[in-house]
Amino acid sequence: MSVLIDRKLCARCGKCAEVCPGNLITRDASGAAFLKHPEECWGCASCLKECRHGAIAYFLGADIGGQGAEMRVRSEGPLRYWRVERPGQDAVVITTDSRTANQY
């Protein structure tokens, strides 16, 4: 699992690079974030959670979502909307609430 950073949507704030535990996110001359070696991404989602601009998306491996699958997360307060898209299939949206997500 890895992430893809859309440089067009990147706000150039650098928050994703600050939270990456592997120091894998760097910035180009314009300040836009990118992964120099995406194959080394741990898939921890720290950057995805930090980005408030929708510039970062998960890319799932064939064992999880199939080739070409993409996951995007959008936050609205305590709510997170996890949208998984696969080529040729309807998108799946899962909503979680951080206030109750860890309750058993």
Characteristics of this structure?
mainly beta; 104 residues; Alpha-Beta Plaits; 33% strand; 2 helices
Can you walk me through this structure?
Helices cover 10% and strands 33% of the residues. The chain is mostly beta strands and 104 residues long. It has a single domain, classed as Alpha-Beta Plaits (2-Layer Sandwich), CATH 3.30.70.20. It has a five-stranded antiparallel beta sheet. A two-stranded antiparallel sheet has the order 2-3. The two termini are 27 Å apart.
The side-by-side strand order for the widest beta sheet comes to 1-4-5-6-7
Tertiary shape: globular
Mean pLDDT: 81
The CATH topology name reads Alpha-Beta Plaits
**Topology as a string of helices (H) and strands (E):** EHEEHEEEE
Number of helices: 2
Residue share in helix: under 10%
Largest sheet composition: 5 strands, antiparallel
Quote the distance from N terminus to C terminus.
27 Å
Radius of gyration: 14 Å
Number of strands: 7
User: Tell me, what is the CATH class?
Assistant: Alpha Beta
Structural class estimated from helices and strands: mainly beta
The unreliable regions are none
CATH architecture term? 2-Layer Sandwich
